[in-house]
């Protein structure tokens, strides 16, 4: 089954609350994740909310990586969406786990743009 | 069941190929979508690929909206991820459909950050 994009939906609970509120650290984690995947960064944007929480998006030549955090709940929602066979989104898991230290991690693996070949 | 984010995963096929390759038009569609949802735009970034295709991400005070297009296949992958009860991601569908004119649209509705209350 051919498809255009690999999209990992990550639910992280029990993360380090300080890391979840660390805008610079999250930006570095995004860059590390982009590199780990073998992707090409076009630009990155992070935003710190008051009183807490960070949003970050890395725009890639191969789609995007996003994060939204709730430090008060120890929760982060991350999406790693890549296209192209030279990029492996699962490789982003290592830098993400190292930085956020989630006690519990769920991964939903969604294929985007599925193309059914004739006869299948 | 309480949750933190509403995430609509949209698969659009049979779109207008010109619209899929129209960077300015896609940027306007993203802004219209943000407004339709009742969300607050922090920043927007679009990128045009050679020979074709556009990526766009709108970073919101309430998470993000992203689009990646394949004009040669008439396909777009869109994610509308919002948090907060004042924002309704489904309202983004109207400006998206009006601009891209998909012949076929699939919607996957994913709740992010589900919090189980005690006793449930």
UniProtKB/TrEMBL annotation, chains A, B:
Cofactor(s) required, per the database record: pyruvate
Modified residues (Pyruvic acid (Ser)): 63
Any one GO BP annotation for this protein: spermidine biosynthetic process
Superkingdom of this protein's organism: Archaea
Catalytic reaction(s) noted: S-adenosyl-L-methionine + H(+) = S-adenosyl 3-(methylsulfanyl)propylamine + CO2
Molecular function in Gene Ontology: adenosylmethionine decarboxylase activity
Keyword Lyase: yes
Entry comment on modification after translation: Is synthesized initially as an inactive proenzyme. Formation of the active enzyme involves a self-maturation process in which the active site pyruvoyl group is generated from an internal serine residue via an autocatalytic post-translational modification. Two non-identical subunits are generated from the proenzyme in this reaction, and the pyruvate is formed at the N-terminus of the alpha chain, which is derived from the carboxyl end of the proenzyme.
Keywords: Autocatalytic cleavage, Decarboxylase, Lyase, Polyamine biosynthesis, Pyruvate, S-adenosyl-L-methionine, Schiff base, Spermidine biosynthesis, Zymogen
Record protein name field: S-adenosylmethionine decarboxylase proenzyme
Organism, as annotated: Methanotorris igneus (strain DSM 5666 / JCM 11834 / Kol 5)
Gene: speH
């Amino acid at each position: 089954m051919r498809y255009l994009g690999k999209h990992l939906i990550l639910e992280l609970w029990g993360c380090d609350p300080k890391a979840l509120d660390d805008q610079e650290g999250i930006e570095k984690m995004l860059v590390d994740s982009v590199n780990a995947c073998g992707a090409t960064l076009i630009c990155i944007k992070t935003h710190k909310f008051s009183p807490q929480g960070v949003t970050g998006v890395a725009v890639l030549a191969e789609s995007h990586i996003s994060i939204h955090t709730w430090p008060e709940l120890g929760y982060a929602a991350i999406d790693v969406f890549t296209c192209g066979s030279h990029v492996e989104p699962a490789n982003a898991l290592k830098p993400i786990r190292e930085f956020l230290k989630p006690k519990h991690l769920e991964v939903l693996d969604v294929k985007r743009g599925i193309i059914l070949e004739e006869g299948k």
